[in-house]
Each structure stands twice: as structure tokens, then as C-alpha cells.
């Protein structure tokens, strides 16, 4: 039986979003062999996702060019992490093969995903996440002429609406659950970050409403209308598509599986805990970007730069970027305060509203469960294709349940790849 290939690198970076790109570029002058893996077709992450309907910003092109200028950076796109066979090794898979990558230092830049919360009708065709709608449009989804409602909380709503409108859609309402006072306070605070203030001006939309949240989606075979609660009054709006975004949840699965410490649960969505040099609780393992808490691409770039320098031993250069990181940490804190989800959001699901879409588990079936394990064992919640990535986040928000640490495989993998876990080391592919 042929042994699985074993590759080596000095520095392995998981994730090629802004944080991962900045980490690789910062570490490159050291001469270390650097591998960057990402499951997208090209570097950029979710925020700089490429595609037929995408228009990459100048910053994304600059960082891509910077990666290409360094011969010691190898970017492996379309590559997923399957497991961690040993402390300093990851099992990887792409469209062609599975292989093992052994590293001396590791930087986790695994980003975040949308928090999707259940409400009546959220499983109808035509209902997506706000960021999901952006990704679909960038991938070529035709939305020209469609009536779209965007609902939830945070600046992503305006960004999604802008993307949809640029693709020819008609945005008929943007429903922000935060109050006018909270949004106005956030807008006033942007004077500290002039670039963000200018961005907010360009995204301003006449259909934007505060103190407004989704009640239910309606339709037969697809979305036909949505009911919104605007203050104390309900309104129904005809639409062809609904995009909902209730914030982001850090992607901490790989970090948890490796054994990294997390931030306290009472601080909100748990993230990977890091120190001043972006080091996690594990020796030789760093983390940067939205897996440490979400706060925008600028914060991710600053954190990635610090992590990249620190991982190759250049602590002096790392510390020179602390002021930039602090600046964007302050922005993240302001963002979290202004768009914190109101308690009323927990009242969206009705007894028959599905929480686990994969296994058709309604809200009423979970109300008496003692925790995530109880719900999984007795209601099959989280046992479907998403493996709890969607319903687990929803249950944590609705009930306060914390899912257990993930077990391998982290993503669907071919049997041949999984079989490689039991094989002896094969040929060594050194960069």
C-alpha cells in the first residue's frame, strides 16, 4: 500500500483571508518556508471573495501581488483541513489528493461564519445569509430585477444591499434590529476612523430602518413576502429574496480540536484566546483575524502582521504594529456595543420553527433539553450534513448551550484520505 505523502514547512498558515495573507507577507523576509492553505479557489477570504460577479478592491489585489512576489510562500487553494494526526501535523485534502503537512510554527486564520437564527419561514428557498447572498452574487447568481429584503444587524446588511443593488436587484427594505440611538452613536464614533466613515457614506440607503426585525417569511415553493416588526407595528413586504445576517461567529473548530484556550463565554461568541503577540495557549501556535473575534479586515491585517513577525522570531517588528491593532480593536469594541442583539431576537422562533434544518428538529423539541449533548442524543439536533455548524450556533444563542469540542474529520473527506491516518510516513516533500 502506497504511503501518504508527508510535506514539511517552517510556517503553516490556515486561511488566506486578510489575516493569513498579512501573516505570510510579514514572515516571508525571514526566508522561512511558508505554506498557506485555504478552501476557497483564490486568496482573499470571504471579504475579498473572487468570482464572475466580483469586483476585487485594490487592497485585495495588492495583497495577492505581495504573496506572489515571495518565492518561499506556497499558496494551496481549494484545500481543507481534515484532521490533526499529531501535535505538529495536519491532514489536508484538495480535489486531487490527501496529504499530511508537518509544521514548526502554525498560524490559525480561520475567520468567521454568519450567525443564522431561525424564524418562521427561514427554510424557504430564497432565504440566505446576508454574507451568503454576497458570495452567491460574486459567484455569478443572477439577481437583476429581484426584490430583496435584507434584515438582521450590523454593517454587513448595508454591504450586502450594496452588492445586490450593483448586480441589478431592487432592495426594498434593510431592517436593522438595533435602535436609532445605537446606530447614530456608532455613526458619530466613526470620526475616529475616517476611512470607515467614508465607507458608511457610500453605503447609505434610503430603505434602511432601525428598530426593525424580521417576524416571518411567507411563500409556497419560494419566498413571496416577509413580515417585519417596525417598532410596535408589523408590515408585510412583497419580495423575491431575503438575506439575513445577525453577526458573525468565529471559526474555532480547528483551534478547539488542537486544544487552544478560548475567550470567556460571558464575553459573547467564544473566540481563540491570544496574547500580545497573537500566540495561543499552545506553544508554537498563533491565531489572527476573526477567529479571535470579529472586527473587520483592518483589524485582521494588523493581527496577521503581528502573528507573522512573531512566528519567525521578529518580536521587535511585531510590537511596532501594536498601535495599529489597538486602533482597530477599539473599532471592533464599538461595533459590538452598537449592534448587540436585543433579547427580543430570541423570541423569533415559534414552537414549530425548525432549528436544525438537516434533521427537521423544531424549537419545541429542544425547549426541554438540558444541553447540546442531550439535544443531539435524543433529538438528533446537529447530526445532519452541517454537523451542528448552523444549529449549534443558533442553540448557543437561544439556549446558552456550548457545543463540545469537535472531533475529526473536520470536513467531509475521501476514504482514501482518512485511511492515510493509519499509514506510516511516506515520501517527504520539502519546499
Report on this structure.
The chain is α/β, with parallel strands linked by helices and 431 residues long. It is 30% helix and 23% strand. The chain is built from 14 helices and 20 strands. It has helices at 18-27, 58-69, 130-138, 156-166, 180-189, 194-203, 253-258, 297-311, 315-319, 322-338, 363-366, 372-379, 391-399, 415-419; strands at 6-14, 34-37, 73-76, 80-86, 89-93, 98-108, 112-114, 127-129, 147-152, 170-176, 208-209, 212-218, 225-230, 233-238, 241-245, 248-250, 285-287, 354-356, 361-362, 428-430. The strands form five sheets. Strands 1, 2, 3, 4, 5, 6, 17 and 20 form an eight-stranded mixed beta sheet that branches. A hairpin with a 4-residue loop joins β18 and β19. α1 runs parallel beside α2 and α1 packs parallel to α8. The two termini are 25 Å apart.
- In percent, how helical is the residue content? 25-40%
Structural class: alpha/beta
Distance between the termini: 25 Å
Rounded average pLDDT: 92
DSSP summary, beta strand count = 20
Beta-strand share of residues: 15-25%
**Radius of gyration from the CA trace?**
22 Å
Q: What's the quaternary structure here?
A: single chain
Short précis:
The protein has 431 residues and is an alpha/beta fold. The chain has helices at residues 18-27, 58-69, 130-138, 156-166, 180-189, 194-203, 253-258, 297-311, 315-319, 322-338, 363-366, 372-379, 391-399, 415-419, and strands at residues 6-14, 34-37, 73-76, 80-86, 89-93, 98-108, 112-114, 127-129, 147-152, 170-176, 208-209, 212-218, 225-230, 233-238, 241-245, 248-250, 285-287, 354-356, 361-362, 428-430. The strands form five sheets. Strands 1, 2, 3, 4, 5, 6, 17 and 20 form an eight-stranded mixed β-sheet that branches.
Amino acid at each position: 500500500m502506497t504511503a501518504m505523502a508527508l510535506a514539511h514547512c517552517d510556517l503553516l498558515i490556515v486561511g488566506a483571508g486578510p489575516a493569513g495573507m498579512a501573516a505570510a507577507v510579514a514572515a516571508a523576509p525571514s526566508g522561512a518556508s511558508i505554506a498557506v492553505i485555504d478552501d476557497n479557489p483564490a486568496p482573499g477570504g470571504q471579504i475579498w471573495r473572487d468570482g464572475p460577479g466580483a469586483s476585487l478592491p485594490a487592497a485585495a489585489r495588492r495583497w495577492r501581488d505581495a504573496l506572489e512576489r515571495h518565492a518561499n510562500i506556497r499558496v494551496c487553494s481549494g484545500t481543507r483541513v481534515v484532521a490533526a494526526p499529531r501535535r505538529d501535523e495536519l491532514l489536508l485534502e484538495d480535489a486531487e489528493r490527501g496529504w499530511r503537512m508537518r509544521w514548526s510554527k502554525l498560524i490559525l486564520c480561520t475567520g468567521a461564519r454568519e450567525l443564522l437564527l431561525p424564524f418562521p419561514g427561514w427554510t424557504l428557498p430564497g432565504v440566505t445569509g446576508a454574507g451568503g447572498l454576497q458570495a452567491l452574487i460574486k459567484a455569478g447568481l443572477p439577481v437583476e430585477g429581484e426584490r430583496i429584503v435584507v434584515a438582521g444587524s450590523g454593517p454587513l446588511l448595508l454591504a450586502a444591499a450594496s452588492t445586490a443593488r450593483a448586480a441589478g436587484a431592487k432592495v426594498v427594505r434593510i431592517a436593522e434590529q438595533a435602535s436609532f440611538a445605537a446606530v447614530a452613536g456608532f455613526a458619530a464614533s466613526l470620526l475616529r476612523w475616517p476611512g470607515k466613515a467614508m465607507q458608511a457614506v457610500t453605503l447609505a440607503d434610503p430603505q434602511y430602518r432601525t428598530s426593525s426585525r424580521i417576524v416571518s417569511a411567507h411563500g409556497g415553493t419560494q419566498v413571496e413576502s416577509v413580515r417585519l416588526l417596525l417598532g410596535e407595528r408589523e408590515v408585510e413586504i412583497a419580495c423575491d429574496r431575503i438575506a439575513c445576517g445577525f453577526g458573525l461567529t468565529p471559526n474555532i473548530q480547528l483551534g478547539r480540536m488542537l486544544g487552544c484556550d478560548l475567550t470567556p463565554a460571558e464575553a459573547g461568541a467564544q473566540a481563540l484566546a491570544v496574547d500580545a503577540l497573537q500566540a495561543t495557549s499552545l506553544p508554537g501556535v498563533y491565531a489572527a483575524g476573526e477567529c479571535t473575534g470579529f472586527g473587520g479586515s483592518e483589524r485582521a491585517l494588523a493581527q496577521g502582521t503581528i502573528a507573522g513577525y512573531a512566528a519567525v522570531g521578529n518580536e521587535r517588528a511585531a510590537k511596532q504594529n501594536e498601535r495599529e491593532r489597538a486602533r482597530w480593536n477599539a473599532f471592533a469594541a464599538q461595533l459590538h456595543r452598537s449592534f448587540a442583539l436585543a433579547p427580543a431576537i430570541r423570541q423569533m422562533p415559534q414552537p414549530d420553527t425548525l432549528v436544525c434544518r438537516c434533521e427537521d428538529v423544531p424549537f419545541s423539541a429542544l425547549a426541554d433539553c438540558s444541553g447540546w449533548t442531550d439535544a443531539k442524543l435524543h433529538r438528533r439536533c446537529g447530526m445532519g450534513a452541517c454537523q451542528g455548524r448552523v444549529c449549534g450556533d443558533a442553540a448557543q444563542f437561544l439556549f446558552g448551550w456550548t457545543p463540545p469540542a469537535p472531533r475529526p474529520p473536520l470536513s467531509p473527506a475521501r476514504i482514501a484520505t482518512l485511511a492515510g491516518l493509519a499509514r506510516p510516513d511516506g515520501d517527504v516533500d520539502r519546499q
